[in-house]
Amino acid sequence: QVQLVESGGGLVPAGGSLRLSCAASGRTFSGYGMAWIRQAPGKEREFVAAVSWSGSNTYYADSVKGRFAISRDNAKNTVYLQMNSLKPEDTSVYYCAAVRSLDYSGGYYHGVYDYWGQGTQVTVSS
What we know:
Elements: E1 2-7, E2 10-13, E3 18-26, E4 33-39, E5 46-51, E6 58-60, E7 68-73, E8 78-83, E9 92-105, E10 108-116, E11 120-125
Parallel strand pairs: 2-11
Antiparallel strand pairs: 1-3, 3-8, 4-5, 4-9, 5-6, 7-8, 9-10, 9-11
């Protein structure tokens, strides 16, 4: 088992920044790729970003590319999502997840995840 706990969400004006953290405990964290996924009310879950187990490879949804940055610190068992130039459409609950597999097709990343955190709310005001 891997337990994941997100933090860092909040209310921010458009154009602002937030950094989300996801602290992991339990099974070997460094063996997993990690991802951030978000879900807005009434919408399906949306892949945001992922990072390989080593941290050397990163993947982003087109909607956040150039604005968000994912990273990880395996010594601290933590993955981060730095979010800059936030827009009202970024408002969602953000979840971190341990990646079993990640595929790219049709212009989108599609992941299968073994473990999920409880989520943290990000609200961007216009």
